[in-house]
Amino acid sequence: MELDDAALIELRNVRVMRGEKAALDDFSLRIALAEHVAILGPNGCGKSTLIKTITRECYPVARENSWMTILGRERWNVFELRSLLGIVSNDLLAWCKSDTPGLEVVLSGFFSSQRVFRNHRVSTEQERRASGTLERLGVLHLAERPMEEMSSGEAQRVLIARALVHEPKALVFDEPTNSLDVLAQRELRETMRELARSGVGIVLVTHHVTDIIPEIERVVLMREGRIMADGPKREVLCADRLSELFGMDVEISRHNGHYHLW
């Protein structure tokens, strides 16, 4: 099967254990290659385990009628997979808070490392692509600035550039606004919108309804390691379902394609 013909992610009846607990149980999900999807749920619902399963840090239990593919394949060289599926997470934001300059952080994406080490050989083409990706995101001026001297919003854009430098099939955003102030959150959402409009697949994993940009039309609700709802955004993001999801009475409003919960 050609990669372009395969689903980005497909899980069928998957169970993933974290210690003695099933963090994902009888979990089935299919996301198409260029699709824009939000996976929404409270803390502890299994979102982080789902991300780690996709990135091959966690593995499903082997059992009958249970399987998982990424881009149509069950087995991957992890380094090859990382070049096709970009990950943007707060774990990386903490990981890269150092004296490493922005350009080097982006270049480290070619080696799946924290920075460029002595054993790495950076080509002229890699430098060109790294600088071009920073420029695409409007942060070429951060190329020589150490990560520790950047605002959280600037650092997040550099990490998006790191994820984009391979020209991946899709980007996975893992709770991307958690450490950002209000302005940086807004800027990040605008960046996600631009990427979605450019044709990059977006998988947003979050517990913030406000993170769900207008370009995302499908929403998956997760609770206690299972999918509670999956469908068009207008149908899934309703007060009854979200009250059940978060275990409290909520109200929801919509303005210019954005949703707000209180």
Structural notes for this entry:
The chain is α/β, with parallel strands linked by helices. The protein folds into two domains: 3-84 and 168-261, P-loop containing nucleotide triphosphate hydrolases (Rossmann fold, 3-Layer(aba) Sandwich), CATH 3.40.50; 96-167, no CATH class. The chain contains nine helices and eleven strands. It has helices spanning 47-54, 78-82, 90-95, 102-108, 124-136, 152-164, 182-197, 233-236, 239-246, and strands at residues 9-18, 21-31, 36-40, 67-70, 85-89, 170-174, 201-206, 218-223, 226-232, 252-255, 258-261. The strands form three sheets. It has a six-stranded mixed β-sheet with strand order 5-6-7-3-8-9, sandwiched between helices. It has a three-stranded antiparallel β-sheet with strand order 2-1-4, covered by helices on one side. A two-stranded antiparallel sheet has the order 10-11.
Class per helix and strand makeup: alpha/beta
Count of individual beta strands: 11
Separation, N- and C-terminal Cα atoms: 45 Å
Q: What's the CATH first level of the largest domain?
A: Alpha Beta
Rg over CA atoms: 18 Å
Number of helices: 9
Q: How helix-rich are the residues, as a percent range?
A: 25-40%
Strand content: 25-35%
Query: CATH H level of the largest domain: which superfamily?
Result: P-loop containing nucleotide triphosphate hydrolases
Sketch the major β-sheet: 6 strands, mixed
Compressed to H and E, one letter per element, the order equals EEEHEHEHHHHEHEEEHHEE
Shape: globular
CATH topology of the largest domain: Rossmann fold
Tally of individual domains: 2
With strands numbered from the N-terminus, the spatial order across the biggest sheet is 5-6-7-3-8-9
Q: What's the overall average pLDDT, rounded?
A: 92
- Taking pLDDT < 50 over at least 5 consecutive residues as the criterion, the unreliable ranges are none
Which second-level CATH architecture of the largest domain applies?
Answer: 3-Layer(aba) Sandwich
